[in-house]
User: What shape does this take?
Amino acid sequence: MATDTINPTPLRSQAPGTRRQGNRKQGNRKQARRNTLIGWTFILPNFLGFLAFTLIPVLAAFALAFMEWTSFSAPKWVGLANFERMLGSDSFWVALRNTLLYALGHVPLTLALALILAMLLNRKLKGIGFFRVAIFFPYITSLVAVAVVWNMLFSPDSGPINQFLQFVGVANPPGWTSSSDWAMPAVILTSVWRDMGYYMILYLAGLQAIPTELYEAAEVDGASAWQRFWNVTLPSLRPTTFFVVVMLTVSSFKVFDLIVVMTNGGPGRSTTVLSQLIYQEGIGEGKFGYSSAISLVLFLIVLTVTVLQFKLQQRRER
Amino acid sequence: MTNLTEDLRAEVAPGGTAGHERGLAERRSLRARRARTVNVVIYAVLVVLVAALLVPFLWMLSSSLKENNQVFTVPIQWIPEEFVWSNYSDIWTRIPMMGYLQNSLYLSVIITFLQVLTGSLAAYGFSKIRFPGRDVLFLGYIATIAVPWQAYMVPQYIMMQQLGLTNSFNALILLQAFGAFGVFLMRQYYMTIPDELCEAARIDGLSEYGIWARVILPLSKPALASLALLTFVNTWNDYMGPFIYLTSNRLWTVQLGLRSFVGQFDAEFAMIMTGSVISVVPILIIFLIGQRYFIQGIATSGMKG
Assistant: This one.
């Protein structure tokens, strides 16, 4: 709507021929005002939605963390009370620990596999496109279908995974999602399988940006394949690795859907993670203030990881 | 499918393999022979690897064509004794699958359309028109991409509750159609289009809207396709959004329908796998049509919603 009402006048007053006439200063100011108006009309349709449904909720989340507000009571400023309660709560520490465990498994495994896959797939072979597409496909398949299928694959009794493990000589294969010790590894395996194709693409792009001359020079110097990998490939991939590590870590701390659908935090509380706690407390039980305090912690962790990685990267480059 | 190979190469490293080595003929043939052996080994490794990675899909497909009691047999039967095609006709009467598919399609199309339209408009404003405050505003967009959605889902929920929009498609459309990510991805691409093109069009008397529609949009087809595909697939696969906002069965998407089917009939393994296959097929088709845009979108922007 705003688009229609704001723009006709400035547009017509600035027909192309008139632009450079008259006082230059005045023209510039006019030009700036015209640009501002037009610029805003372009941004406005998106900005209004963005402002109302992203920016304001983000800012509200910060304020809510310091308020006592439930679905039954009016909001009241309580300072750090929510945080005190959180630090004294057992479920918070369990969820934090589980989230860290998930990240510790998910980040290195996905990173290593993505890099190995990218190295394997970075060559001109007939049908290489098919392999890339096949490895990437899990990433875009429906999460519910993925979770359902893997849950069945992980079936303790006659599921294909345990059948395979027994076949290769594991006498007592784990109970996977029905065991509180093995549920987290099961979730991690599923998520690694799902995500590695995506990071493989990022690595593939990184590998293809390395000039072939570097490898040729290394070969002339008599470097072995391993030395070439260690001294040419890895250093050249540093920016990609930096990016991948940040993305992986941040996405690990945000893990949510997969857990909800696969284990719903169980058995017991063995796979409950931070985002799930936020959901349960905030939307499930209507404790808006308290859940926002946990959100704030999640945000601060994500922010710290990003900034830390960024600093590390900068120091390495110096 | 092969275009995936070429496109990524052309995109990322133009002429990447141009450097040919000038060596002795002998050395060259030795090299070629070694390369051939390496290739055979790599092929073998890749075939095994990809087969292993695709096992979950094969298992899903195979189970969806079995009787219930055939799904968990010892040892596993990869090819059903008898193909139970009736699973695929029965499921439509067991759960309102058609309704779920329609809901998913409706949401995905509307959200994708709005995301691409408003995203590309805003990206034009952020990349081709200079005005005070522009860059600060854009920084605000980027900053919110870094905030995890979980951190503000509760305020969003309260807001939707106050507006009386919970349990409606409108809540999801409003929340997902104006993402900062779309603006970011489109702007990244528009920055690579030379400003001189816009300048020339301006001199020719085209309005800014005309330039956007007639110069920039046609030039940014790959970026538009990337954004559209990523948004569509994201919306189609989204679980938490519909889970939080859509309570009545009538509004459920495929993901919610499938999930609840699993909870309600958790012993109907074959039927559950049939539902899973049906939920994946539309994505598979879209993916095969547009895979190179997916890859480009990821390779250039490095991220997804």
In short: Chain A has two domains: 14-64, 82-317.
